[in-house]
Amino acid sequence: MNISTTWLREWIDPKVSDKVLAEQLTMAGLEVDGIAPIAPYFENVVVGRVVSCEKHPDADKLNLCQVDVGSGNNLQIICGASNIRTDLKVIVATIGAVLPNGLKIKKAKLRGVESFGMICSEAELGMVDNSDGISELEVDAPIGENIRKYLNLDDNIIELDITPNRGDCFSVLGVAREVSANYNLPFIMPNISVSAQSSSNIDTRVSNAMACPKYLTRSISGIDNTLKTPKWMADKLMRSGQALHSPVVDITNFVLMELGQPMHAFDAAKIKGGIKVRNAKSGEKIELLNETTVVLDEDTLVIADNDSALAIAGVMGGLDSATQSESTDILLESAFFEPVSIAGKARKYGLHTESSLRFERGVDFNITELAMDRATQLIIEICGGQASEINTCIDETFLPKLSAIIITQDKIHKVLGFELEAKWIEEKFIGLDFKISDKTEHSWTIIPPSFRFDIRIPADLIEELARLYGYDKIPVQKLALDATINTIPEAQIDKYDIAQSLVTRGYQEVITYSFISEKYHNLIDVNANKIMLSNPISAELSIMRSSLWAGLLQSVESNQRRGHNNARFFEIGLCFSGVKAEEQSNKLAGVVSGNRFDAQWLGDLMPVDFFDAKADLESLLKLTGTRFEFRVSEHPALQKGQTAKIVLNGNLVGWIGALTPNVAKELSLPKCYLFEIDLEALLTGKIAKYKAFSQYQQSQRDIALVLDELIPVSELIDSIEALQQPDFVGVSLFDVYTGENIETGKKSVALNLTYQSLEATLSDDEVNTKVDKVLVLMKDKFSATQR
Question: pTM (2 decimals)?
């Protein structure tokens, strides 16, 4: 929000420079993004009046002007502007002036005729980037007055970055309150008085009091909306970043910037019947002030008459009912809309307005009457007319409740780490307009004002004291901490170790949004519970993720667009099957794509495959010391034949497989291999036990078995390990073969068996006996024959 320091100082004027004032606002919690003057510094530029204007004798495009600058003698000035004319009030740079563009004004000759100054445009004074012709001042501009004084060019604009919790500061009034609390100075409210001369002839009703517990209207008849907005108001609006329209619209915008209350004015002649505040009908349309037509949802609150919607409540008015220059009778609206009912509505329809910005953050529900009177007063002063009484629709049940908060000095000291004087605390609470409903020697019962939606708990009050004291002044204290060290079970695996296991295998951790698009949701698992956000950041982030794969695949796609084709990413994060706590679970997921290694001179590039991803995952699973099973299965996002579910103790805990070609094509992705597993399954492992090393030679035997190709090798390995043979070290797979000399439907599996004794080197007969038992097991259990 932009605010003029001159406007602010009309309310409250601390005796400090604008720069110091801006610094103080930042230290008080209102971040100042910048402060800049209205115009660069210059001197010797005054108001002048063109006494006469004739064509230059030797140049058709130049004019020879006599200009009165209040010095007693007219200045002869040559000017080439097309809009120069007699009796025009203009900006005159006299001899000796130096303009912001570096031009020094001195006596000059143009086509043989002397010129003693320059008639300027706003662009030449650095006030705007471009301007057509010279500046035309008001007819009552005092001749000879310094233009800086007349145009108030010594004003500065403070650009404030207001945080969402401080909606009360989106106005001059709100910032003045902050300055008042910081400098212990009172601020001056404008003198507001309105004389109502009739009752409103437009009936007003609210059907959704929960969304709109307070709605005020007032009729003003007989106005003249063709007049020009006064310069003092136009300057303040433009310096606040507001465009000028008609006087009525400018006045409502002025009240919005001054008091923080969004308002709207309807052309009373265009209202059919009465005003109804209701929810939109399904498929109802409205053409807005920006000349776009939107189809309204049923959860959108609208202001309507008997025939149609006139405005989206708290967002933007409709074009059909807007005031025009010929409007003579208007209906003013001033309302309090419940913030949640307005939140996200502007974004839903592709809008961003000053009204929605404020209503979404919360507007003071006790200022609606004051804002109505202020707008009425200004309209009657500027446009004339007669005002009616205020028509009110108020439901106290749904207005925000101002709950008392108890705060103690002990609590303040505990949080801040230092003592604050009780008198100073009370002064600051009063300065912030907080009501002290009760107090003791060391405690206060505080009722926050209606404009502070962010004050709800004692910590909020302490934060107010801290920022007014000055964050830069808070002393550094050495904290004493009574730490209770919790014991961690030895079997517990730290999440850091899990992440490091993948990092050592070349993975990079990514952190993605918990929200995904409906497209990604349906491509990954259309059967998963679809949890829609009521107020999404964008349409592409509208659903809570049920899997981490969406974010990982987006990361692959983003990197691929930038030429990074070898991807190994993983993420640990929450996934959602519902909105309840028990329906949320932490998962670990990874994606592999591209080549196994970077290009090298020794060999050709080798693309990654299913077993690269499986090996990475198995290395991670080994941290637990628990046996996980990989079983052939099907998943909607994974390719049939290259998909396995991960099972622990009979329970499904994850998936691994190749991304199905249909999904890869839809997302313009290369071949990707994915895995995902419940994090809980990885956090508890078996306690490591010491095992002695043998100093004797290992003995190894290779066996080749022919068996049914549908039998998983893991079942062979599990069965061999289940024999628990003495001196058995391990078994590993080193070859699988199908084809020539192998019967159809069969496969040849080659296993390596390793034995080693702690007491002596095993003889061939001892090893052979053990291997024979393995072969008998394979034959009996799997009908396997030795090849």
Answer: 0.65
